[in-house]
Amino acid sequence: MKVLEQTSYRLRVRDYPWLMWFVGGFFIFMPILMLSFFQVEEIHCQRQTVPYECIITRTSLVSQERVKIPLTSLYQAKLEDYIDSEGDRMYRVVLEVAGQSIPLGYASSVVGNRAAIVEQINQFRANPNQTQLSARLDDRRLIEIFAGVFFLVGMALISLTSVLTLDLDQRRGTFTIQHANFFRRTQKELLLREIGDIAIESHEDSDGDTYRVVVHLTSGEKVPLRNYYSSGYNNKKKLANLLRQFLNLPPL
């Protein structure tokens, strides 16, 4: 909350929705982080030059890792399936190499091209006349969908949550409530003589108590300064008491 002007006859206050902007920023940042570290895996095998080998390349936006596998050590590729902790059947490509299992790509509930990649690798291993093989596991499409949803939610929170400006003018006898976001500006004007009280409403849910400041009119109508409830009782109390002081009401 920022006091723009405070005199005996006028009070102007601006309240920024920092919490909503922070949450929106989090929703925007998370998909960027997810896409930055999500790896695309490729396998390239060749019999053109010695040593004959397969190279697994794991690439993300921030790193690249290569694993070399001698072709003579590659026993087979197989498609593993298992039931995860949530009861979903998951699939992944596994290379059996010299007594150990090396996963290729992430496990997924969708088989996709995994079965085809297993078949290609095993055919290459069994066919000495085939000189090279390239296959790619890229599961970014699902991640991109989730990232897009997160990004849109974040942008909506930042662009649609409004800055609140309050203008109480004793000379005009008005209390102006203005909401402004990136797309529109709305304004509601009350008469100071119609204001009976400034109060704080609370709402309880599974996440705890949330609050908002409400103007009570003498007609019985209630005008909330914001349509939604949010955490931070002390900030709401500070704003309510500032308004009450200007209106010559006792503090909360």
List the helices and strands and how they pair.
Elements: E1 2-6, E2 10-15, H1 18-37, E3 40-46, E4 53-59, E5 64-70, E6 74-83, E7 89-97, E8 100-108, H2 114-126, E9 132-137, H3 140-160, E10 163-169, E11 174-180, E12 185-191, E13 195-205, E14 208-217, E15 222-224, H4 233-246
Antiparallel strand pairs: 1-2, 2-10, 3-4, 3-9, 4-5, 6-7, 7-8, 10-11, 11-12, 13-14, 14-15
Task: Tell me what the structure shows.
There is one protein chain. The protein is of the alpha+beta class. The chain folds into two domains: 2-17 and 162-246, PH-domain like (Roll); 39-138, no CATH class. It is 27% helix and 44% strand. It has four helices and 15 strands. It has helices at residues 18-37, 114-126, 140-160, 233-246, and strands at 2-6, 10-15, 40-46, 53-59, 64-70, 74-83, 89-97, 100-108, 132-137, 163-169, 174-180, 185-191, 195-205, 208-217, 222-224. It has a five-stranded antiparallel β-sheet with strand order 1-2-10-11-12, with no helix packed on it. Strands 5-4-3-9 form a four-stranded antiparallel β-sheet, with helices on one face. Helix 1 (18-37) runs antiparallel to helix 3 (140-160). The longest helix is centred in the middle third of the chain and has 21 residues, at 140-160. The mean pLDDT is 92.
